[in-house]
Amino acid sequence: MSIDPDKIYVEKDYGVADRTIIGAVANKPNTNLAIPTNFLFSFRKIPTMTYFIQEFTLPECGAEPLSSEFMIGPTVKFPKSSFSYGTLSLKFLINEDFSNYYAVVQWILENTGYQSFVTKQNYNEGASEEGSLILLTNKKNPFRKIDFVGLIPVDLSGLEFSNDVVDITTMSATLKFSISGYTTTNL
User: Fold this and answer.
1) How confident is the model at residue 2 (pLDDT cuts 50, 70, 90)?
2) Where is average pLDDT lowest: 6-15, 70-79, 156-165?
3) Would you say residue 102 lies in a domain?
4) What is the CA radius of gyration of the chain?
5) N or C: lower Cβ tally within 10 Å for the chain?
6) How far apart, in whole angstroms, are the C-alpha atoms of residue 187 and residue 178?
7) CA-wise closest residue to 43 among 102, 126, 105
8) Burial degree of 35 (CB within 10 A; 0-12, 13-18, 19+)
């Protein structure tokens, strides 16, 4: 029996005859499952926040199809030329001096020019911000990088203070971004 380098052969196995394995099994896919803790997210505006990010949600994306109705026959749908991204969301822990929380508040205020009626306001300066999500394997090796462009913070959750807490927990906040798009590269 000659060995063809393009095919994988399996020896007799409990009385089963020789057979050629083709298709998806022949490519030996990665069968390791993704774990939601294997990520790092950072952005240039607040680089010290990377350590405090606990949850990250990739934005949904899609396009509504165009529908054409005809007098005779069914409605026909076509792909639409516009594409939209949803909201990128992350949850982060608040550090003791609240510096990461107030850095986000300052970022939001910089993007709202009509708040203080400053004469030298750089509108949409914050829209050029970029962020990177690095996905890690189960052995904590980086394998894919997702670069987000046009990050604009649109929503920051409030903070709740209470004196009647039985168990001490850390404070956290949720931050939502509007994005212009993202690209994916293998590392």
Assistant:
1) low
2) 6-15
3) yes
4) 25
5) N
6) 26
7) 126
8) exposed
- For 57, residues 6+ apart whose C-beta sits below 8 A from its C-beta are 88, 89, 90
Q: With respect to residue 136, please indicate whether it lies within any of the assigned structural domains.
A: yes
Q: Residue 10 domain-assigned?
A: no
Q: How many domains does the chain have?
A: 1
The boundaries of the domain holding residue 73 are 32-186
Mean pLDDT of 109-117: 67
Report yes or no: 135 and 142 within 8 Å, Cβ to Cβ: yes
Length in residues, the chain? 187
Rounded Cα distance, 72 and 89, in Å: 45
**Distance from C-alpha of 177 to C-alpha of 67, rounded to nearest angstrom:** 31
CATH no. for residue 79?
2.30.110
Cβ-based burial of 19 (10 A; exposed 0-12, middle 13-18, buried ≥19) = exposed
Q: Which residues contact 130 (CB under 8 A, 6 or more apart)?
A: 43, 44, 147, 148, 149, 151
Query: Does residue 16 belong to any structural domain of this protein?
Result: no
109 versus 16: the higher-pLDDT residue is: 109
Q: Which SS3 state, helix, strand or coil, does residue 71 take?
A: coil
Enclosing H/E stretch for 169: none
